[in-house]
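The freezer alarm interrupted the setup, so I double-checked each line after restarting. Inputs confirmed:
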Amino acid sequence: MDKSQNNVAAGLEGIVVANTQMSMVDGQAGRLVLRGYEVGQLSGEVSFEQACGLFLDGALPPAKDTEAIGQALAAARVEAFDGLDQVKGALKQDDAMAALRGAVGQWGIEDPSDRRAAALRLVGALPVWSTAWWRMRNGQAPVAPDARAAHSADTLTMLHGCAPSAAKRRALDAYLVAVIDHGMNASTFTARVVASTGADLTSAVTAAIGALSGPLHGGAPGPVLDMLDAIGHADRAQAWIETELAQGRRIMGMGHRVYKVRDPRAAVLERAVEGIEGELTGKTAQRLALAHAVEAHAQAMLEAAKPGRKLRANVEFYTAVLLEALELPRELFAATFCASRALGWCAHVFEQRDTGRLLRPRARYVGPAPKAA
Ligand code: COA
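Predicted 3D structure, all chains:
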């Protein structure tokens, strides 16, 4: 593509393709509004079960409904665990996202009579498949879900084989709530396009998982940890970043297509890591301190190297630190993101269906004119 075509593509960015009640991203002010709440009013403040009610029903649920949502998610976990044999081919994939994509396809999630139940059945099943995938790859038997546990606690139990502390459960809840939705991102747009054709929820979600599996969408937290590993100590941050920039490489976890200030999710995730600090192992406390130092150096050096670009920490920066503190393997980072974002996809699919309209954007033709006859 030549430069002028790139400019055409840039000019087409940011066009409005749908009305939505799900979320609003203000990249200049650094705000993310989720269903009428600032992200910081929800993440760390409400449980994932409550957030399910908010996204599927439009309002934070009363205690009784929250309990019913918890029971529906738990029933979905149990059903998915009992049916692991049905998706065992998918769980043999080498990549967690490929495993989830295959499992959703083989499982089938559409229940036309009750779309809310269908969404909870999907969202409940995802961590069962991702944790079973991880454990089986590592020669361990999958751990059965505990139907009485909160969804985030059970996610960690199914992975590690023992129940997490309350602080760790809260931290995973904060993460799952923070990343449910984020405007018309690539995977959400994918889900809406598929849904707009009248296709079923299984098709919309498998397509969205495919979109999320790409490294430009769901893939940066692993490389952020690689960067922190490579830097090792705050004293080395400046020199390391200098070398990367001199070689034309990007600093992972910095910069965003929409945000021109610090991503508001970085702050809530940082707060979530600090919430477990009381019981952090020395390693995680050091990691957090290193992350703070690297972020400060990276921000200053990017400002000098790319003046006016406003490259700041994005969601992936502290996602990496948080998920590592919860002892999630890097191979499950994208799948954990998916376990939350799937709720957003379902809400968008239902919203799109309610419009009854096919999404059919146009492309601007920039090819050669037809030869004269
Ligand atoms: N490190 C170094 N330079 C960066 C950078 C980063 N993290 N992010 C952007 N830039 C530079 C680009 O090289 C470009 O420089 P140029 O104008 O001299 O060519 C300029 O800033 C603008 O980059 P552009 O590619 O137009 O920004 P974008 O909006 O397309 O990119 C990202 C957004 C997120 C893809 C980009 O910031 C990036 O690659 N970040 C690192 C990966 C990451 O953290 N991804 C997770 C995103 S949630």
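Quick read of the result. The two ends are 28 Å apart (CA to CA).
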